[in-house]
Amino acid sequence: MADAPLALLAELTHRCPLRCPYCSNPVELARAGTELSTGEWERVLGEAAELGCLQVHLSGGEPTVRRDLPEIVAAARGAGLYANLITAGVLLDAPLMARLVEAGLDHVQLSIQDAEEAGAERIGGMRGAMPRKAEAARLVREAGLPLTLNAVVHRQNLPNLSRMIERALEWGAARLEVAHVQYYGWALLNRDALLPDRAMLDEATRVVTEAQQRLQGRLVIDYVVPDYHAKRPKACMGGWARRFLGVSPAGRILPCHAAESLTGLDFPNVREVSLRAAWEDSPAFNAFRGTGWMPAPCRGCEHAEQDWGGCRCQAFALTGDMRATDPACALSPHHAVLAEAVASAGAPDFRYRGFTREDILPSHDVRLSNA
Amino acid sequence: MTPRFAPGVRLHEDKARGRTVVMAPERMFVPDEIALAVLRLVDGKRDEAAIVAALAAQYDAPEEVIAGDVKALLDDLATRGALIRG
C-alpha cells in the first residue's frame, strides 16, 4: 500500500497578472470558468487532511485573484492543515491581509523576479509590480506572519543574485528560496533565454554558500540547483506519488504540477473520485510508483531508490518516452541532449506566458496594394 | 537565553501517523522522543536553564548531562530557523 502523502499543492487558478517566461503552469492554461468552486475546494482540503496531508500550498497562477481565498484558507485550517500561501504579492492589500490572518493563514511565500524594478518588470511582464511586492512583504511582517522570499533564478537575473539576497533581508524574510528554473512548459519554450552556463551556475552556488554561512541565524537560504549540469537526476517530487499530490484549477489530481504534460496518462478529477481513491488506486498514480516500472539503466541501479529514476516529465519532454531514464542521469543514453542545450543557450528574448489568443484579425499579412 | 518558536512554527499532532511533528513554513521536522520532550517545554517563558531543570526532574538525570543535549538541539533548530534564541 502507498504511504500517505505529506502535502497537497492546491493550484487554485491559472489566472495571474504576471507573465513570467518560466511559469510552471502548463502551456495550455485553464480558463476561469473551469475552476473548482469554493465548496469543491473545501471538500478537497478535508479529503487531503483525512488522507494524511499535513500542509497545503495554496498556489496558482496567482491565488489572490480568487475572491474566496480567505474561505479556502479557513477550510484548510479547519481541516487541520498548515496553510502556506504562494503569491506574487501584487494584489495583497491591507484588507485582504487582515482577512487571511483572521482565516488562520500560517505563512506567505512571496516571489521576486529580480533585485531591481526594471529587471523585475521585464522578467515578470508587469509594470509596477516591485513596489507592490515590497508593500505586500511589509503587510505580511506587520501581521506577524513568517515571510519567505522566492527568487527563481536564470541566465537573465543571476548576475543580481547578491542583491536579491539583500532584498530578502531588507524585506524581513526569515527564509529565502533560490531556485534555478526547472525546464518544463513555459520554461522549456524559453530555455535558450534562461539556461545558465556552467560558470554562471558555479558563481551562483558560491554566492549562495557564502551567504548561507554569513547569515546563519538571520536568514535560512534554500538552494535548488538546475539538473542540466548534473550527473545524477533529481528525485523529482521525492519520487512519483510517494509524498506529494496536486490538484489543478479544474480539479485534476496530479502526482506533480507538471504531470499534465504527460500525454497518455488519464489523471482522475476531484469531481469524480476522492483524493484517496486517486492516490491509492488510480492507474496514473501507480504508473511510476516504486521501482517495478523501471527499464534499464534504472532497473537494478544502486541509485534507484534515491532518485527514483528522476523526473517523468523531463524524460518525456526530452526523449518522447515517459518511461525512459531522466536524461539528467549520466547513465541515460540521452544524457548528451542536456549538454547540447547548455551549449546552444544564450537567446536574449523570451516568450511571455499567456492565454492562447484567438485572433480576430487576419493572421497573415495580406497585402492589397503594390502587388 | 529564552527560546521560543519562530513565527509560523508549532508542534502538530500528525494523527494519520501517530506522532508529533514540528510544523514550519513549507517544511516539517520529525523530532525523536528526547527532542520532543525538550520542545514541549519551549513556551517563550522558560529559559534554557529552566528547561534543563524541568527535564532533569522529569527523567531523574543529572542536569549537566541533559544540558549538553538541550543546547545541541536548540542550536540545531535555531540554525534551521525553527527556533529563536531570545
UniProtKB/TrEMBL annotation, chain A:
Gene3D superfamilies: Aldolase class I (3.20.20.70). Binds 1 [4Fe-4S] cluster. The cluster is coordinated with 3 cysteines and an exchangeable S-adenosyl-L-methionine. Its EC number is 1.21.98.4. Signal peptide: none annotated. Belongs to the radical SAM superfamily. PqqE family. Interacts with PqqD. The interaction is necessary for activity of PqqE. This is PqqA peptide cyclase. The lineage of its organism: Bacteria, Pseudomonadati, Pseudomonadota, Alphaproteobacteria, Acetobacterales. The gene is pqqE.
UniProtKB/TrEMBL annotation, chain B:
Pathway: Cofactor biosynthesis; pyrroloquinoline quinone biosynthesis. Pfam families: PqqD. InterPro entries: PQQD, PqqD_bac, PqqD_sf. Signal peptide: none annotated. It comes from the Bacteria. Keywords: PQQ biosynthesis. Monomer. Interacts with PqqE. This is Pyrroloquinoline quinone biosynthesis peptide chaperone PqqD. The lineage of its organism: Bacteria, Pseudomonadati, Pseudomonadota, Alphaproteobacteria, Acetobacterales.
